[in-house]
């Protein structure tokens, strides 16, 4: 199994609290309101949002405080991290979850407006950058980033997906400011623009690329993992809230650890829960959050993630979205260390193993894992009507993708999947005996 579950340790009840959180009134027996901003459809934040909420873990942890207060949790659902930051810097939201680039803007705005925030934990991450993907229309002639010159590309400026677009274009020798027409759009608007033909490509974060590919409305043009730079989502808290209500924040982080453990132990059920809450297809949720999904969930603030965050600052500065950001001052793992105890060190040391090919049979509570993509294809070929979804890892980046949406290459007896055509072409160029095959041909060869 791909995940490294976070062990939950028994912790003593914390001392009574004396100050109020968010909009709560102070005083013994008062009702304390804790406001949590989350992004239900940004499914790599589910352990601090959608899944956490559906499990009721935070409320249970608050009830266990027994500090004389009654707690009320207000959940606020947003499409992106920007409005969460706006609410936090206005003192109206206590805890929020968002991607790495929005987290930096959160840090910058908080300091600028005198409402400093702190990054306290991580939700979903991918050490190579596979959470972001550039897609184009299914019938598009585009097969590489070079073809984007002079074209319209939709993204959300200031998002991790925009960061991926900027870096990818620069590596391809294109100027992201001069060589493309960038459309600054919300994910749903950009998806509609791609389908309508008013955008030639879309660079977005999870779950939009996978959703559009699953629906047959897009095909991958660029796999963010080609950058080989970590991307992640995390939890941020207002500094004044954390200082006044440390036990409440630690209760949230304990609840996040519970949700993480549940996702790791019950990946299919967790995907179904998130699908029910968001309206996303469970097959898409599982692509990202499954047992061998694109994302890994460990709450610890790993050094390589913090290092990547520091590298992200220059991209936002170039876009004039922030000035310098003191990442070391923004990162604060004290609350997570106290909340998780010894399990924090386990989370910090966890290394995601390579992804594996998987088949999700209809009506099954578990998926089947296969040693090679060819073995998966042989199974699918023999059980076509019984397979709900099939997943394969990119042969070069390890990014999981839908088997029927992958670009396939036959190299001798091996059948190799790729997320994007450019990586497949690179492989073909380096292996003269290899040849491109369709999904149907790959199934036939495997069987």
Give short descriptive properties of this protein.
single chain, 447 residues, alpha+beta, D-Maltodextrin-Binding Protein, domain 2, 3 domains, five-stranded mixed β-sheet, 18 helices, 18 strands, globular, disordered N terminus
What does the model show?
The chain is an alpha+beta fold. It folds into three domains: 31-125 and 231-349, Periplasmic binding protein-like II (D-Maltodextrin-Binding Protein, domain 2, 3-Layer(aba) Sandwich); 132-227, 3-Layer(aba) Sandwich (D-Maltodextrin-Binding Protein, domain 2); 357-446, no CATH class. Helix content is 38%, strand content 21%. The protein has helices at 50-55, 57-63, 82-89, 100-112, 160-171, 187-196, 208-214, 239-244, 246-265, 267-278, 282-289, 303-318, 327-330, 334-340, 343-349, 373-382, 421-430, 439-446; strands spanning 31-38, 70-77, 95-99, 117-126, 132-136, 152-155, 181-184, 201-205, 219-223, 231-238, 296-297, 357-361, 368-370, 387-393, 400-402, 407-411, 414-418, 435-437. The strands form four sheets. A six-stranded mixed sheet has the order 2-1-3-10-4-11, with helices on both faces. A five-stranded mixed sheet has the order 7-6-8-5-9, with helices on both faces. Helix 4 packs across helix 12 and helix 9 (246-265) packs across helix 14. Residues 1-28 have low confidence and may be disordered. Keywords: Signal. Residues 1-21 form the signal peptide. This is ABC transporter substrate-binding protein.
């Amino acid at each position: 199994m791909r995940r490294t579950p976070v062990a939950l340790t028994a912790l003593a009840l914390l001392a009574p609290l004396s100050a109020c959180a968010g909009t709560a009134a102070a005083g013994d027996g008062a009702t304390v309101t804790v406001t949590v901003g989350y992004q239900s459809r940004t499914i790599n934040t589910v352990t601090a949002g959608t899944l956490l909420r559906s499990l009721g873990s935070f409320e249970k942890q608050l009830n266990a405080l027994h500090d004389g207060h009654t707690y009320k949790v207000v959940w606020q659902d947003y499409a992106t991290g920007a409005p969460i930051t706006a609410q936090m810097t206005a003192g109206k939201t206590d805890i929020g979850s968002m991607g790495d680039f929005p987290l930096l803007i959160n840090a910058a705005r908080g300091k600028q407006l005198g409402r400093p925030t702190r990054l306290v934990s991580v939700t979903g991450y991918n050490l190579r950058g596979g959470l972001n993907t550039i897609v184009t229309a299914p019938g598009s002639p585009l097969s590489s980033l070079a073809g984007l010159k002079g074209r319209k590309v939709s993204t959300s400026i200031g998002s991790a997906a925009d960061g991926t677009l900027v870096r990818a274009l620069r590596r391809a020798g294109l100027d992201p400011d001069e060589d493309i027409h960038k459309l600054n759009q919300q994910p749903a608007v950009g998806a509609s623009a791609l389908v309508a033909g008013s955008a030639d490509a879309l660079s977005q974060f999870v779950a939009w690329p996978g959703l559009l590919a699953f629906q047959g409305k897009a095909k991958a043009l660029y796999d963010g993992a080609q950058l080989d730079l970590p991307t992640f989502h995390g939890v941020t808290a207002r500094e004044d809230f954390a200082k006044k209500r440390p036990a409440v924040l630690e209760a949230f982080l304990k609840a996040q650890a519970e949700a993480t453990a549940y996702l790791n132990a019950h990946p299919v059920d967790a995907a179904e829960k998130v699908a029910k809450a968001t309206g996303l297809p469970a097959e898409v949720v599982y692509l990202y959050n499954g047992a061998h999904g694109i994302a890994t969930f460990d709450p610890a603030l790993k050094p390589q993630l913090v290092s990547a965050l520091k590298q992200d600052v220059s991209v936002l500065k170039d876009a004039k979205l922030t000035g310098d950001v003191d990442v070391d001052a923004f990162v604060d793992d004290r609350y997570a260390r106290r909340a998780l105890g010894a399990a924090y060190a386990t989370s910090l040391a966890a290394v995601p193993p390579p992804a594996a090919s998987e088949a999700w049979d209809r009506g099954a509570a578990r998926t089947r894992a296969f040693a090679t993509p060819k073995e998966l294809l042989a199974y699918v070929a023999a059980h076509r009507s019984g397979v709900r979804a099939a997943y394969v890892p990119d042969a070069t980046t390890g990014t999981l993708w839908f088997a029927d949406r992958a670009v396939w290459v036959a190299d001798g007896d091996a059948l190799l999947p790729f997320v994007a055509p450019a990586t497949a072409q690179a492989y073909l160029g380096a292996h003269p005996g290899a040849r491109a095959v369709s999904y149907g041909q790959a199934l036939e060869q495997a069987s």
